[in-house]
Amino acid sequence: MASPAPWKQLLLTALDSNSHLKHANFIQIATVGFNGKPSNRTVVFRGFSGNSDKFQINTDLRTNKVEDIKHCPFAEVCWYFTETWEQFRINGKIDIIDGLNSSPLKLQQRETAWFESSLKSRSQYLGNAPGFPSIYDETSMKQTNLNPSTGPVDAFCLLVFDPEKVDYLNLKSNNRVVFTVSKPQSEGCKNWISKNINP
Amino acid sequence: MASPAPWKQLLLTALDSNSHLKHANFIQIATVGFNGKPSNRTVVFRGFSGNSDKFQINTDLRTNKVEDIKHCPFAEVCWYFTETWEQFRINGKIDIIDGLNSSPLKLQQRETAWFESSLKSRSQYLGNAPGFPSIYDETSMKQTNLNPSTGPVDAFCLLVFDPEKVDYLNLKSNNRVVFTVSKPQSEGCKNWISKNINP
Questions:
Q1: Architecture of the domain delimited by B8-196
Q2: For a tag site, which of A2, A117, B24, B117 has the least CB within 10 Å?
Q3: CA–CA dist A40, A57 (Å, integer)
Q4: CA distance B99 to B111
Q5: Which residue intervals define the domain Pyridoxamine 5'-phosphate oxidase Alr4036 family FMN-binding in the entry (chains A, B) (predicted)?
Q6: Which fold would CATH assign to domain A6-196?
């Protein structure tokens, strides 16, 4: 059993200190598109996968970000905590888990994520394709008819983000620490090392 | 004279409605590194360049982001306003203005940006190189000795970000509008078109 990543406690403490703010779990995630240009958008941190240091993010399979990630699985999350003035820049790789995934374990993980979402969140996946021109029609009415026991719909996609480097900056104390994985991973084990760097 | 970009008033209104929050002008900017992977970090919006729709950002020439931008000048800013629940995703191109720039006009712009910064902000550029291992030494003491009339130091760099696409999302009204430049630019003129899209 791997010991917890050394930055995880820092992050959990920041989350706790900022938990009175609705936006405390809003993170910005950067990816690279087919054209080689960066994209950046706000998504919601949905907690860690079990006891690991991997993040869960829910998304609509029809968004551009899924295409971006299929093309280039690397991402950098920027998480700024507005109350405590702490920034975490987290670089890592993303695994896309949609309804066609071949792993029964991952499909189970996706189903759990679905049922952990509010009914309001789930109903968004029944709406029109995000990013397409708005046309008011009856399909948008489907949103009200979601059965609470219905499993994940096709558009529901779980993203699992696996951190490989964390750059922590505290603007109050002016401390900056970078955490990196020192050795190649073996069986999910990571050996993290930390270094103080200039802010 | 070009008319103002149609998204600019939306942004100015959001800035005004959120202006009581210290972090209202903190934005996340994504770039692509030499390795083709994305980077993402918080920077401070320093206002528009004159009457244009270009953003100004101050940075240290010694940061990785400057290298990233030299390699690939494209960036996407993600700006989330925590009070009004509005997100602006702004895609564009960055111009780097350091002390070796060949344009006298740009050098003047950089000097103005320097003097518009607080003394505390300016003194950061006298510190040790950001991102390098922390070593306590006397050079960090230089920060207290900055003369207010001294012009920009070598490490001071002005970034000018030129928006080409703006994706606006209002999470309260659930409205999303995308603004794009319809024609190639001629002499700084841009013709913006807008379209309502599904959130």
A1: Roll (2.30)
A2: A2
A3: 15
A4: 9
A5: 5-97
A6: Pnp Oxidase; Chain A (2.30.110)
Name the one residue in this structure whose structure tokens are 């920034």. Answer: A87
The whole-number average pLDDT for the span B163-184 is 94
Which of B26, B64, B182, B32 lies closest to A39 in space, CA to CA? Answer: B32
pLDDT of residue A102: 98
Cβ contact (<8 Å) for A128 and B198? yes
> Which residues 160-189 of chain B have a CB within 8 Å of chain A?
176
Q: What is the structure's pLDDT at A31? A: 98
Q: Three-state SS for A16?
A: helix
Between CA A125 and CA A113 the distance in angstroms is 13
> Helix, strand, coil proportions of chain B in percent (round to 5)?
25, 35, 40
Q: Measure the CA–CA gap between B189 and B199, rounded to whole angstroms.
A: 29
Residue environment code for A156-194, b if the CB has 16+ CB neighbours within 10 A, otherwise e:
bbbbbbbbbebbbbbeeeeebbbbebeeeeeeeebebee
